[in-house]
Specification:
Layout: H1 18-29, H2 54-63, H3 66-74, H4 82-92, H5 109-123, H6 125-128, H7 134-145, H8 158-170, H9 178-188, E1 192-194, E2 197-198, H10 217-227, H11 233-250, H12 275-282, H13 293-308, H14 358-361, E3 375-378, E4 383-386, E5 393-396, H15 408-412, E6 416-418, H16 432-435, E7 441-444, E8 457-463, E9 467-475, E10 478-485, E11 494-503, E12 507-512, E13 516-517, E14 535-539, E15 542-547, E16 550-556, E17 564-569, E18 581-590, E19 597-607, H17 619-623, H18 631-638
Antiparallel strand pairs: 1-2, 3-4, 4-5, 5-6, 7-12, 8-9, 9-10, 10-11, 11-19, 12-18, 13-18, 14-15, 15-16, 16-19, 17-18
């Protein structure tokens, strides 16, 4: 019974070859047949709501798998269920039909789904456009071209219209608007900020999450550079140059097991996080050292393998759940419909390549040795990435969502984000257990009734390539300056946080380390334990937990030891990776006298090695190797 309910329909797929990848895709496409409308134009996967209408949500379920289907067909593959999508194109765009998707309005969700559709025409025209009747083609191009005179958000959405027009161009449609397409491209290029990075919007927007990479901008630039090389060679070469630079930063968001660091919004798209690597191959980018096609292949396929082993990511019939490693409505956005997760099908883009492409011909290689055991400042996203000791994570200061997004403080404002431990989101608005306050300094001015965490970060910068420094203001009479110091080779499993607080009110603080899987070997809640065994530990200014996921702990370095360590059992389903988590936390009380309050926190974390393995032996010796506060920061503390 050990494996009962702990496998997925894809668990046994080795994902080594192009054929393996195609089988994985088919395994995702086949279950959709049972959820497809009679006319093929809508796929209904559930009843949860979004801010947009239900027809648009069902269009989303129909369109997003096309990222994979088009790649499969464009690469010479076949799929028996292709007719479902051909029928859907015919019936979804028929204005007199029962399954009509509806004409587009300004800032319409339907615009998003045009991206995959335009890509499909450009990549697999002979399979997904040519078989349609003349009447169906006319309806189709009228519907798709209907977005050209509509208002769009000033974000990555503009790429969706670019791809709609690219598809219309490949179809030879009179609805292709070359002027509109060029204007969109020119405007999208104003988002570029250098070194390969683009922000998700105009100047003033400070979101550089996965939309700046795999979810949208980098992927779109690479796909465009392949598909529009003949018409727009200069821009296409510029996009390939950007990708070469970007890749050397983006690789630091992936660990040796293939996991990407969860950060930002839309994480229910799951393995879309790795689609950039397939897009590099699709665009035939000349790779910068130390990247090779074997390395890129490994980054892509290891990420996919990780997801085939997450039972909570799939329903028993093979359809995707809304969530991350398990169904989770608390971490979603109001634009996540049951069909939204199929944005992950972008990661099948390598299926569009022939088996003779270097991506498929290369032997898969592990994570590059030259990029292991590193600490790297990433100046544009305001991250410091590290994988010292085999723990891949980022320290983060300075990003925030420029418009309302559920749980944005958790998605952008935390102090660190880990590939092994994920991050947590609030599941309520009351107790500390509900908060999910990992990797954050949570503050309360009402004795713990409600809590505030960092959301709007100001004056963020990386100082001398050594640490992150920023300001944040949770109340008008409270200011907090935070330094985030990465690990060192002398203490590779520790990082430091230093906070200077000036407050006009009495505060309670709760500073969390990394949340960790909170069950013991018997599957029950962790019990107290002092040493190597699985369990929790609370002593003075220390809190710690050890389980099969590794070890996580926090130590109070300052404040005269007045903060107390706890191993807090967070409410279920708050952490994206561990549905039952324990959070090492330091608790403190602070007077509101406007004097400097210095909090110095050492954060310890060792992830387990391999999938579902136990903790590393000998970690208690590493626990004793405490980090050192940098002299420059210690000098500031000593001034008080």
């Amino acid at each position: 019974m050990a494996n009962f309910a702990q496998t997925t329909p894809f668990f046994s797929n080795p994902l080594k070859t192009k054929d393996d990848l195609a089988k994985f895709l088919v395994g995702l496409l086949d279950p959709l047949a049972a959820h497809t409308s009679p006319g093929g134009a809508r796929i209904h996967l559930g009843h949860t709501a979004t801010h947009y209408d239900d027809i648009a949500a069902q269009l989303e379920g129909f369109s997003r798998p096309i990222w994979g289907l088009a790649s499969l067909l464009g690469g010479g593959g076949e799929y028996e269920g292709t007719k479902r999508w051909l029928d859907g194109f015919k019936n979804g765009t028929d204005p007199d039909g029962e399954e009509f998707w509806g004409n587009m309005k300004n800032k319409d969700q339907r615009m998003v789904e045009c991206s995959a559709i335009g890509f499909a025409i450009a990549v697999a025209k002979d399979k997904l456009w040519d078989p349609l009747s003349a009447e169906a083609k006319t309806n189709f191009e009228n519907w798709l071209g209907g977005m050209n005179d509509k208002e769009m958000p000033n974000t990555n959405w503009l790429w969706f219209r670019v791809f709609a027009n690219l598809g219309l161009s490949r179809a030879g449609s009179p609805r292709f608007d070359a002027k509109r397409m060029k204007a969109d491209m020119d405007h999208l290029d104003t988002f570029y900020i250098g070194d390969g990075w683009s922000r998700d919007g105009p100047e003033g927007v400070v979101q550089l999450d996965y939309y700046s990479s795999s979810f949208a901008i980098q992927f779109a630039q690479l796909a465009y550079s392949k598909l529009a090389q003949a018409e727009d060679p200069q821009r296409c070469e510029e996009y390939r140059n950007r990708a070469r630079k970007f890749a050397l930063d983006f690789v630091h968001y992936f660990d040796e097991e293939g996991r990407a660091i969860p950060f930002g919004r839309s994480l229910t798209y799951r393995f879309a996080m790795s689609s950039f690597w397939g897009a590099l191959a699709f665009a035939d980018v000349e790779l910068p050292a130390p990247l090779t096609w074997g390395v890129v292949k490994g980054l892509q396929l290891r990420n996919l393998r990780y997801w085939t082993k997450q039972p909570g990511a799939f329903y028993p019939d093979g359809t995707l759940t809304i969530g991350f490693t398990y169904p989770n409505q608390s971490m979603t956005e109001n634009y996540n419909s049951p069909g939204s997760p199929y944005w992950c099908c972008k990661s099948f883009v390598a299926l569009a390549l022939p088996e003779t492409h270097p991506f498929w011909m290369a032997e898969e290689e592990p994570y590059p040795l030259a990029l292991r055991e590193t600490v790297k400042p990433l100046y544009h996203p305001l991250h410091i990435a590290t994988n010292l000791g085999g723990h891949t994570y980022i320290l983060s200061s300075g990003q925030q969502c420029s418009y309302p997004v559920k749980q944005s403080a958790a998605k952008y404002g935390k102090l660190a984000y880990s590939s092994a431990f994920g991050y947590s989101v609030p599941v309520g608005n009351g107790t500390l257990e509900e908060l999910g306050g990992d990797s954050t300094l949570a503050l309360s001015d009402d004795d713990g009734e409600t809590w505030k965490c960092r959301r709007d970060t100001r004056e963020a910068r990386i100082e001398g390539g050594k640490w992150l420094r920023s300001m944040w203001y949770p109340w008008k009479d409270v200011e907090i300056e935070t330094w985030l110091v990465p690990p060192t080779k002398e203490a590779p499993w520790w990082h430091l946080r230093v906070h200077r607080i000036k407050s006009g009110r009495k505060l309670t603080s709760a500073e969390g380390g990394f949340a960790i899987y909170g069950q013991g070997e018997d599957g029950r809640a962790l019990e107290p334990s002092i040493g190597e065994a699985f369990g929790t530990y609370e002593h003075g200014g220390e809190g710690r937990a050890a389980s099969r996921a590794g070890v996580s702990g926090v130590v109070d370095f300052g404040n005269k030891g007045t903060r107390k360590g706890r191993a807090l059992r967070t409410d279920a389903n708050s952490n994206l990776i561990a549905a039952r988590a324990v959070l090492p936390t330091l608790m403190g009380e602070h007077e509101g006298d406007k004097k400097n309050i210095w909090l110095v926190t050492a954060v310890f974390a060792i992830p387990s090695v391999g999938y579902k393995s136990g903790t590393r032996s000998g970690w208690t010796a590493e626990w004793e190797k405490r980090p050192v506060v940098p002299e420059e920061i210690q000098a500031l503390i000593n001034q008080q």
